[in-house]
Specification:
The complex is a heterodimer of chains A (343) and B (404). Chain A is built from ten helices and nine strands. With 404 residues, chain B is an alpha+beta fold. Chain B is globular. Classes of the chains: A alpha+beta (343), B alpha+beta (404). The interface between A and B is large, with 53 and 52 residues. Bound molecules: flavin-adenine dinucleotide.
């Protein structure tokens, strides 16, 4: 056992961080606020990240990828979360091992989970080259059980209406007006499960990035802002908010790293590795990371006082993204149910 | 980043499992928490067995009778022992988990020679005389006085009052913090760390009953207790620094195996909930699952900390253990509350005889009240994270030195 990130993993994260640093992210203070409808994909950033190979992390080298595992992917996605990078990163990275033409990041792939009874809302639809959809097909005979499958759909063929005011102004949304969808079947129920599981892991890693960067921003502000003649960070009420933020992010990161390693071990067929245990670990990671991102966003706003509520300070972007992601790839109720099955 | 055993670790794990399988059935059942002589006999017997098998002081250097195992092997030991249901350190807690490691790090060769082998064999029980009625979180405010006396000043004469001294009733020795500097001098600089034999005249104990109804700890009254200067660890006035070493060990590994215990307990609670239809209540079911996620994450955090310790220069656990202590102690209390909820009114009906046994859920629920207090309260852990990890400024009034 050596659970420390390797030098290579840190180097990959560092390379992603460098690229992100060259592009302005919406969460940066003082950044000109995007108005509703003008968010969406930063094409230059997408291209630079694609060049680093972040979409093909898990695609074998022979297929044009980096030939690495989830343990590397989560480092990439934590960096994306730290900068609140906007775009269909998760879905494109999920699609690449399945459909190797996506490994290079030349195409943008979206994702829709249409199995539940949720309103069918899709992200970044106008910017997509392809859309993967998980859906449940009804049985033919009356009363027959349906089965789940993965479809590849041409975004251009979809009937959908743009949502005028998405809560996260950086992520354009469309409401789907069409069912059933037509497309090519690219996977069965097992593929669908894998996509949802891996999507949950990458999303959790992104949320850890949000939780961690917010801790840093709250701490920096608490050291610099003075009231009653002293730094507000010396007040315990503030200090303890920050300490809890730190503990939340650390615990969630440990959960994400452990889930990534367990999934990799399972994929490699190592002794003692099993899929239900790895799946439960992913659910635990998603649960804790969602909580960490959402709660840390609220705490960061609290530490910043009135400034925290302003558009300019930008902390609302983190909260909004954290909210949105906590509803993607399974929410708390679904993940706790999945964990409870393993108990 | 990986969690698999190396071939050496795998071998170590398998040998240990085989030994535990063979040895555990020979043990008597755990005595009641109130029966101190029986507890001492039980826990010491287990320690002696560990010693004979080469598992005592696993992570202590070989030159002091330990096995010189790596932090990872130590973790495997804690994990496997707990999974097999082996006894916990019990009354050996202080000796094995913090007094012993402190002696190894700070004591003279004679002092180590005198105490370390006996601690390892389970022949010497220690307690911790740090807290006082007026010095808890603000430990450096301690007032128990030690004055040099004798022809060549060869004794300290100690007067004062210690409190919450766990296991004092069975202890042979006490790690004692005393004030050797002037009472109104700088509070962190006048403290000294002494080894006090518990049978020294002038040591009186007044057992205190815990909320769980057992006598876990005592008040310790010290009246003209004469302690040889040769029993001092380190320099006079250097006791605060040494106490910090003690704490690093106490928080670093003291509670680790309890995560494994808690995770097993959660599976039992889930089984009980299924039996009692509480499982149908999605609220309860999800709270159980949420707690499973928390304990699994804590276990991952332990592995991260251990991996870092394995590659650090000094092997003294870092402040990261405060994150663990903070989250574990709160999760542990949720666990016991959840257990009570699933049991329903049974959780209110104690069987007098049984309610002070390790593992009895009513007893554990009351015992876990102390988790957010002992070894530094949750508020103190948050101060440590805020100040020592995040670098936030100290409270102005506490600016001259940290808390426990
Ligand atoms: C089961 C048990 C076993 C123990 N065993 C031992 C033992 O063997 N040997 C030993 O020496 N001690 C032992 N202790 C004592 C333990 O270390 C102290 O209880 C603990 O350090 C807290 O001190 P206190 O009880 O005086 O509480 P106080 O320090 O008076 O704290 C009371 C409350 O005030 C809060 N508080 C205090 N200072 C601050 C601050 N700076 N910022 C924010 N909040 C603050 C605390 O968090 C707490 O909520 C034991 C305690 C328990 C419960």
């Amino acid at each position: 056992m050596d659970f420390r990130p390797t030098q290579d993993q840190l180097a990959l994260a560092g390379a992603v961080r460098d690229v992100l640093g060259k592009h302005s992210a919406p969460g940066t203070p003082g950044q000109k606020a995007p108005e509703a409808g003008i968010g969406g994909v930063d094409v230059a950033l997408w291209r630079d990240l694609a060049e680093l190979g972040i979409f093909g992390v898990r695609v074998p080298e022979a297929g044009g990828g980096l030939g690495l595992g989830h343990a590397e992917s989560v480092h990439v996605f934590e960096e994306l979360g730290r900068c609140l990078a906007t775009g269909p990163f998760t879905a494109t990275a999920l699609a690449a091992p399945l459909l190797p033409e996506y490994a290079g990041g030349r195409h943008r792939v979206g994702f829709g989970d249409l199995t539940g009874g949720e309103p069918q809302i899709l992200e970044h639809l106008d910017a997509l080259d392809a859309l993967l959809v998980v859906e449940t097909v009804e049985g033919e005979a009356p009363g027959a059980v349906g089965h789940t499958q993965v479809l590849r759909v041409e975004p251009i063929e979809l009937r959908a209406d743009a949502v005028p005011h998405p809560v996260d102004p950086c992520v354009p949304l469309h409401r789907l007006r069409q069912k059933p969808l037509r497309g090519e079947i690219v996977g069965d129920a097992g593929t669908a499960d894998a996509l949802l599981r891996e999507g949950a892991l990458l999303t959790a890693a992104y949320q850890v990035g949000i939780a961690a960067v917010l801790t840093e921003r709250a701490v920096a502000y608490a050291k610099q802002r003075t009231q009653f003649g002293r730094a507000i960070g010396s007040f315990q009420a503030v200090k303890h908010l920050c300490a809890d933020m730190f503990a939340r992010a650390e615990l969630a990161r440990a959960a994400v790293h452990s889930a990534a390693v367990l999934l990799d071990d399972e994929a490699a067929g190592h002794d003692g590795a099993d899929l239900p245990a790895a799946a439960a670990a992913v659910s635990a990671a998603k649960l804790l990371a969602d909580e960490a991102a959402v709660t840390n966003a609220r705490s960061a706003i609290q530490v910043h006082g009135g400034m925290g509520c302003t558009w300019e300070m930008g902390l609302h972007f983190h909260l909004k993204r954290a909210w949105a992601l906590s509803m993607a790839y399974g929410r708390a109720a679904e993940h706790t149910d999945l964990i409870s099955e393993s108990l | 980043m990986q969690l698999r055993d190396t071939p050496d670790q795998q071998r170590f794990r398998e040998e240990l499992r085989a030994w535990l399988r063979a040895t555990l059935p020979t043990l008597d059942p755990q005595p009641s928490q109130d029966d101190w002589p029986a507890r001492r006999a039980h826990d010491s017997h287990w320690q002696a067995l560990l010693h004979q098998a080469g598992y005592a002081g696993l992570n202590w250097p070989a030159e002091y009778g330990g096995r010189g195992a790596t932090p990872t092997e130590h973790l495997i030991f804690l994990e496997e022992s707990e999974l097999a249901g082996a006894p916990y350190v019990g009354v050996n807690f202080v000796g094995l988990l913090h007094a012993g490691p402190t002696l190894i790090a700070e004591a003279s060769p004679e002092q180590r020679e005198r105490h370390i082998p006996a601690i390892l064999r389970g022949e010497e029980i220690w307690c911790q005389g740090f807290s006082e009625p007026d010095a808890g979180s603000d430990l450096a405010a301690l007032r128990t006085r030690a004055v040099r006396e004798g022809a060549g000043g060869e004794h300290y004469v100690v007067n004062g009052r210690k409190t919450w001294t766990s296991h004092a009733e069975v202890a042979d020795y006490c790690e004692l913090l005393v004030r050797t500097g002037p009472p109104d001098g700088p509070k962190h600089q006048g403290i000294t760390w002494l080894i006090m034999p518990m049978d020294t005249p002038g040591v009186a104990l007044r057992p205190l009953m815990t909320a769980g109804g057992s006598t876990e700890f005592s008040e310790m009254i010290l009246e003209d207790v004469r302690i040889p200067v040769a029993n001092r660890v380190g320099q006079e006035g250097d006791g605060w620094r040494i106490a910090m070493v003690t704490f690093a060990f106490e928080r670093g590994t003291g509670f680790v195996s309890e995560v494994v215990w808690a995770r097993r307990r959660l599976v039992e609670i889930a089984a009980l909930a299924r039996e009692k239809a509480a499982w149908e209540d999605s609220q309860t079911r999800r709270r159980i699952a949420r707690l499973a996620a928390e304990f699994d994450a804590l276990w991952a955090l332990v592995k991260r900390n251990v991996s870092e310790a394995e590659h650090s220069a000094d092997g003294v656990p870092g402040p990261g253990s405060s994150v663990f202590k903070l989250r574990f102690s709160e999760a542990r209390q949720h666990l016991d509350d959840l257990h009570a909820e699933v049991r329903g009114r049974d959780a209110l009906a104690f069987d007098d005889e049984l309610c002070t046994y390790d593992g009895e859920p009513g007893y554990e629920r009351l015992r876990s009240l102390a988790y957010t207090i002992a070894a530094g309260t949750s508020q103190v852990q948050r101060n440590i994270i805020g100040e020592r990890i995040l670098g936030l400024p100290k409270e102005p009034s506490a600016a001259k030195g940290g808390a426990r």
